[in-house]
Specification:
heterodimer; A: mainly alpha; 3 helices; B: mainly alpha; Arp2/3 complex 21 kDa subunit ARPC3; two-stranded antiparallel sheet; 2% strand
Chain lengths: 92, 231
């Protein structure tokens, strides 16, 4: 099990590194940015008719909010796993 | 317009008729999900923790924007994990909450496109993952293989549907629906392949622990819920 998990984690990191190394100079923008460009090309008469009510004022604030999202999520996931492990202590 | 990082359909990018259609298509699944949620709480109030866990996993994974071999970024959804342990309809409710948070605070996705995004991520993603998991378990495959395939294909299915939704709403002026579909599939689905593999790996790693340490809770909950329908 430990060996299998090590292989899986290595594969996971490998996929991310491969993406970065194989595309030096790429912008790594979001796929939705590429999609809005494509809409402009395929359907040039279309104009977005609704704007987000609120946008993070800067890239920094946006990454703050994403970090909070990831931290809250991971925090609860790990809390649950620790709780379940503790409850099973001696049984597994 | 600014490039906003993300991969759900952007605010304002679906015409009104499609906005309404996708909202309407989500409604029956949302209804099932709320029924499922109340059933779980009635049968076993302690299972709230497990629901929180499934929601938190989705919340964390949707924030992980990962680079892909196509040179753009996309993210896993984390929907498959909850669909496997708590049933797919519940994930429609959880997906709605996560997408609403991202639409309101991160300008990621949007309110007009919420119906379409809930449909692709939570309805299609969860039901595809659940169906694949159950079928592969029936074929007596090892659990890890079933979980990996379910999470991977559930994630891919979500983005195939996103591409389809965009192509239906934006057929090319010359070349029509088909040309648009090829184009959007190229943007979303191919970027998504390595991300889907990553989602499969993360789901296997985390579910292993759940099955190891919460097996008795899961089994007793599933026993109680099966009397009310599998999903």
């Amino acid at each position: 099990m430990v060996k299998r998990n090590l292989i899986l984690v290595t594969l996971l990191i490998g996929l991310v590194v491969l993406a970065l190394v194989s595309n030096r100079g790429a912008e790594f923008g979001g796929a939705d940015g590429a999609a809005s460009d494509a809409i402009g090309e395929l359907d040039p008469s279309y104009a977005a008719w609704f704007e987000p009510l609120w946008e993070p004022p800067s890239g920094e604030i946006e990454s703050l909010l994403f970090a909070v999202q990831a931290a809250v999520g991971t925090g609860f996931v790990c809390f649950y796993l620790g709780y379940a492990m503790g409850k099973n202590k001696g049984k597994v | 317009m600014d490039l906003i990082l993300g991969m759900h359909i952007m605010e304002g990018f679906l015409p009104l008729d499609w906005v309404i259609i996708w909202y309407l298509l989500c409604l029956p699944f949302l209804f099932l999900g709320i029924k499922r949620l109340t059933a779980i709480i009635e049968e076993d109030p302690k299972a709230m923790l497990l629901i929180g866990f499934a929601g938190a996993f989705t919340f964390a994974l949707s924030a992980l924007k990962l680079p892909s071999v196509t040179g753009s970024c996309s993210h896993p959804t984390g929907i498959a994990l909850g669909a496997i342990i708590l049933g797919p309809s519940l994930m429609v409710v959880i997906g709605l909450i996560v997408l609403l948070f991202q639409a309101l605070l991160l300008a990621h996705g949007g309110l007009t496109t919420l119906g379409a995004n809930v449909f692709s991520m939570s309805v299609v993603g969860a039901f595809v993952a659940y169906g694949i998991y159950r079928s592969l378990m029936k074929l007596k495959l090892p659990r890890a293989a079933a979980v990996f395939t379910a999470a991977c294909l559930g994630n891919l299915a979500t983005y195939m549907v996103t591409a389809l939704q965009l192509a239906l709403a934006h057929p090319a002026q010359t070349g029509g629906f088909y040309l648009s579909w090829v184009k959007f599939t190229g943007i979303f689905a191919i970027t998504q392949v390595p991300i889907a593999v990553i989602e499969g790996i993360l789901t296997v790693l985390v579910l292993d622990l759940v099955f190891k340490y919460s097996r008795s809770e899961l089994e007793s909950l599933q026993g109680k819920l099966n009397r009310r329908g599998a999903w």
